[in-house]
Amino acid sequence: MGARTGSQRTAFLTKRSMTQARDRTDAAQGIEGVLLANRERILRFLALRGAGDAAEDLFQDLWVRLSARSTGPVADPLAYVMRAANNLMLDRYRSARQSELRDKAWGESAADQKPSAESALISREQLALVEQTIAATGERPARIFRRFRVDGVQQRDIAAEMGVSLSTVEADLRKVYAALAALRRQFDAP
């Protein structure tokens, strides 16, 4: 009597897995039922904990989190849901605090990075050299470079504007880029 045939064993395993799946579904429906029945109470709880206008969003997050978990039977589902809501608020506080600290640290480090008088002077001198280098390439290449790099005008439009071919615009840009690359090597040289 203790021995089962292959088909009986398969039927038993199928029935057992269906029962387990139904138990998981019942648990999820139980939590969802608690969420639905106590929606206003949970929203008030979240609002009182500081969620404010975000209480609805947090409720949705809570719903998704709890629905996704596969839990067994819960002795006190409302307490379980409220505890999960409290944990969600704690996560929110921690995240906001970390964000605030990160922003504050970044702001302080950015404010501390004022250039010294010496580095400001060096930067002004380098800018003057860049402008001289661009001007030394000629009036047309300098104008094309400024229209393309500073004003953001397309090369085809510059060619039409100046009455030259697209290849002339490209050649003039290469000329300016080569001059600036040579100047950059001078800046980088020890």
TrEMBL record:
Biological-process GO terms, alphabetical: DNA-templated transcription initiation
Annotated ranges, domain RNA polymerase sigma-70 region: 43-97
UniProt KW keywords: Sigma factor, Transcription, Transcription regulation
Keyword Transcription part of the UniProt annotation: yes
Organism: Sphingopyxis flava
Keyword Translocase: no
TM annotation in the entry: none
Protein name stated in the entry: RNA polymerase sigma-70 factor, ECF subfamily
SUPFAM superfamilies in the record: Sigma2 domain of RNA polymerase sigma factors, Sigma3 and sigma4 domains of RNA polymerase sigma factors
Similarity remark: Belongs to the sigma-70 factor family. ECF subfamily.
